[in-house]
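Q: Sequence in, structure out?
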Amino acid sequence: MASVLYQSIETLSRDKGIEPAVVVGAVEDAIALATRKYYKTQENMRAEMDRETGEIRAYVYKTVVETQEQIEDEINQMTLEQARELAPEVEVGGELRFYKDTTPLGRIAAQMAKQVIFQKVREAERDTVFNEYNHRAGEVLTATVKRLEPMDVIFDLGKAEARMPKREQSRLEQFAVGERVRVVLLRVDRAAKGPQVIVSRAAPALVQNLFQSEVPEIYDGTVSIRAIAREAGERTKIAVMSRDKDVDPVGACVGMKGMRVQSIIRELRGEKIDIIEYSDEITTFAEKALQPAKVSRVSITDLADKQIEVIVDDTQLSLAIGKKGQNVRLAAKLLGWKIDIKSEEEKRQEVEQQMQAMGGGPTTPIEQVSELGETILEKLIAAGITTVEALADMTPEQLEEVPGIGEKTVEKISVAVRHYFGQYEEGEERPVVAVSTEAASEGEGDQSMRKTPEEILAAEAGTGTAVEVSELSAEDIVAAEEARSESDALSDADAREEKIERDNDTIDSLVDESQEIANEGINSDGHDRG
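A: Exactly. Output:
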């Protein structure tokens, strides 16, 4: 029959969840330490407990070596010759015990033994907790709320306490002491005060476990959960696939009138759940993952980096992105791909810019703007502005940043560029027209290489001066100028001759009209009445 002491040790072992041999070893170590402390010796000391009587005996032991030369520790070693004087059957490597009397051990030694026993038991308890839960990471456990701290919630798992940090809690949930809830075991941390079991209510594994409990098709393997993306307290997306073509995976998870999914939503305190049918085709899967938004098209942009581009209608862009980007963020987690989402308008502008970049666009040297002087041209070219198009795209503020360009110069450049593209503001004079080759050969080009339309009409008519011709109506002058410009532009020789004949008729009629006006001012004897 076991002693009363050993029965007490067994009771303590059951309460702490540790083996009785661990407690017995702790008691023996405590007695050995207390005995050594009492006798003030450095000898090796052990203790042993008799389970039947409960008696604990302490003893010093010495190791037997063959010769005196082999002794390294005089206190804890002895030669074979010395040992055989005490025990003739002893061999080299054996031990001799010298028992110590534990009767004189007083209160101090007992207190020390008590502390050692408690320490050993705590260490054994910590090891038991670590070994019990360390390999169960990801498992869903049923726990009881033990106490509420300012940031954490402490649960009772039965054999140990578990802590749920703030980051592992759902913002929708509130707990009461004594409430039983399901939690996910995340990990077991070794700490100075013992192993800490960390649990969570925000892990996706909790949603998976709830679906396995509520949906028989998932429990028996007919419907499988392929991926879960969750933001606790906000929204969860879950992708399911059926192994039986006759079973609708989404319908099985939703249940009749949504009873199954509503039960899970109540367990999660109202968290939204999107159930999506899984597809091996990534583009199809992406369209479903971005629901409730309607996707126009999906294309893979980088297969190596797992990146896709999603185009949606302009009205669907905000819905596809979701509040604070939540919908597209959860979809990316569900797919395991990076998602670049754009509207139709953004994509169109991007394509236009790419086409422009590929085409390069027309470029004209800045020297073609004749109204810019050499000094201004040199300053612009030195600043890297070499084309008319680049100059036209610059703002006045950007031009003023060019060294040597002031406010007045900016205005001059603006007018010159506008004139180059044929744009004139109200009140600005149009440039004069170049003189024909025949006029230049007669010496007129040296004096005035460019004449106004009125002077050209006067020269071709051969009568009157520019002042006299200017008395004609503006419509007649503009018509004559346009006719002449159109004639110069004709490439075909025959067409040019026909146009010139029509223009000459027009000019002759104008000349006749001007001649009549001039004749009215001349009297019958050939003198001007003026």
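The two ends are 161 Å apart (CA to CA).
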